[in-house]
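Changelog excerpt

This revision adds worked examples to the README so contributors can see how folded entries look when concatenated. The first example is reproduced verbatim below.
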Amino acid sequence: MGKVKEARRKMESIKAHLETISVEGNDPDQRVHVVCNGNRLVQEIKITDTNTVTSDHEALESAIKEAVNDAISKANEIAEEEMKKVAKDMLPPIPGLM
């Protein structure tokens, strides 16, 4: 039971740590910039091309989607690395596992 409590405590610690990490995502044309935290919550969206806002809503929507997905993908990578660290500390050494 002690291992379960320890794992739960470490998971909460990781979640708090991920809250402090910021990752940035952009659309390929750099028109939209998104910042997410390590828990994959959007913190900020900036639109750098104001012409897109007024002229082409579909292009803007696509750019926002691409930038958000980029930021979330980066946040997922960071979260996965943090989880691997905890799993490595919790599990006995198994060749080829990590």
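The second example, added in the same revision:
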Amino acid sequence: MRNTIPIKEAEGKELERRVKAKAVAGRERQRAPIGLLAVGGMTQGQIAAEVGVSRVTVNHGCRRVMTEGLDGLEDATWAQGQFAHG
């Protein structure tokens, strides 16, 4: 399944910055590439293999970015979404 996520140019640049940054909070360092690769049109399977996570994690991350933008990558919203579904 392709996850082309429509985002603003500024959000794309911020995703790129977060992927390259060494000082990114917690697991956001893992989540930022999920968003960036999804914006680029990679499939969930391709993203999972590239980042080293499950397709479920990729699906969750893509949904968060689509509904919450970059705020969906932060720890608090990520945990809330997991508790809401599990």
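Reviewer comment on example two: The radius of gyration is 12 Å. The chain is about 65% helix and 0% strand.
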